[in-house]
Amino acid sequence: MIIIQLKGGLGNQMFQYALYIALKNRGKTVKIDDETGFVNDKLRTPVLAGYGIDYDKATKEEVVALTDSKMDIISRIRRKLTGRKTFRIDEVSGRFDPKILELEDAYLVGYWQSDKYFSQESDIRDIRHAFEKRPQELMSDAVSWSVLQQIECCESVSLHVRRTDYIDAQHKHVHNLCSEKYYKDAVNKILQEYPDAVFFIFTDDKEWCKEHFKGPNFNVVELEEGEGTDIAEMMLMSRCKHHIIANSSFSWWAAWLNDAPDKLVLAPSKWINNKDMDDVYTDRMTKIAI
């Protein structure tokens, strides 16, 4: 049996679910542990149910068995004497590891941020079936519908700016903050090919974006906050014709879900500081200096 630990925000959970699908399509027995990864993360919860997704859930007993973490006295003494006999595998590099797709028994902890993990046609079909929903299935507020109408009526570009959690003391040594120059260069590249482009800005720092992106072709999207807002934003971003993404799994997925053959996807040339992330880039992306 293979158990995948669910953790992180929406984009990360989508990558973990994509690996779940890929392993199942290769005939593996796969389940998801959607509890352990959130024990010490009070800001996030499992959110895939917002897409109407169901998956095989691992029991606590199954997690304990694969990670050799029984707490009875005999098991604890044995571990002290002979070591832990665990099937846990922690993702060390951000590069694609083909051996992951060949496993039979494992407890997988990581983000698995590469489309190389789900490259088969059956994988892509099943993942799109899971995440590509009709707008009425994901949006319930008037603001979202208004934004969708605007997106569909112009040469729309999603522009994702992620700042607040990337600049705090806990994360700034890991995450690169996409510079203002990165965004300006990406905007100019879009405008060279599509002079009438309209940029829809999705961000966690609306005030900064309003200060730095001014003009009639820039719109900072402000949805009503509540349960399902992230999923509504993801859907709206994916409906744009082109994409300027941040070094974020959230906008990565928004761009991936748009399968238009003529789309432009501009991405920062460096993803994070502490891992080799070359395999996060898809064939459809063009790198821009960060």
UniProtKB/TrEMBL annotation:
The keyword Cell wall biogenesis/degradation does not apply. CDD domains: Fut1_Fut2_like (cd11301). GO terms for molecular function: galactoside 2-alpha-L-fucosyltransferase activity. It comes from the Bacteria. The keyword Signal does not apply. GO terms for cellular component: membrane. Keywords: Glycosyltransferase, Transferase. This is Glycosyl transferase family 11.
